[in-house]
Write a structure and sequence with these properties.
Blueprint (H helix, E strand, L loop, with lengths): L13 H18 L7 H29 L24 H16 L4 H29 L1 H9 L5
Helix pairs in contact: 1-3, 1-4, 2-3, 3-4
């Protein structure tokens, strides 16, 4: 059913989706740890990814705020952001959530994070990213199509 609301109608707020998924990971890890690497290697590698994810998210948020558009996908987009990390990816905030999630997975040293990541990526792609793309094309038309033709969806 089409919506007349000025937002993409995403199925879930991405930080909540990733956060809830990681709670599931921790629960699974409690029952069956399934380590990935030696603990010290996993921890330091994970912390590096956490730092990269947080840094990219901060850069993306600042860029969106400077452009005067909403960060929350439940609110209307007021501009197409093409600067900062949006020069390299149309979804740098979602990539940063994935990198942060992978960093936590390594820090907690469990394969469960990888197992649970598969459905998260499917939900994010179908329930968030594709919906946002349709919304942005409806709202901004040719200017969004031009941006989309120049910048990759993810990497």
């Amino acid at each position: 059913m089409p919506t007349s609301a000025d937002n993409p109608g995403v199925v879930a707020l991405p930080p909540l989706l990733y956060g809830a998924a990681f709670v599931v990971v921790l629960g699974c890890r409690w029952f069956w740890p399934m380590p990935i690497l030696a603990q010290a290697v996993a921890l330091w590698s994970g912390l590096g990814l956490v730092a990269l994810g947080v840094g990219t998210a901060a850069w993306g948020r600042r860029t969106m705020q400077a452009a005067g558009t909403n960060i929350n996908p439940a609110l209307p987009a007021t501009a197409i952001v093409t600067s900062g990390p949006f020069r390299f990816s149309r979804n740098p905030l979602y990539l940063s959530l994935t990198v942060l999630y992978l960093g936590l997975t390594l820090s907690f040293n469990t394969w469960w994070g990888i197992v649970v990541l598969v459905p998260i990526i499917i939900v994010m792609h179908r329930g968030v990213v594709l919906r946002e793309e349709r919304y942005l094309e409806r709202k901004f038309g040719e200017s969004y199509r031009q941006y989309r033709s120049k910048v990759r969806r993810y990497l």
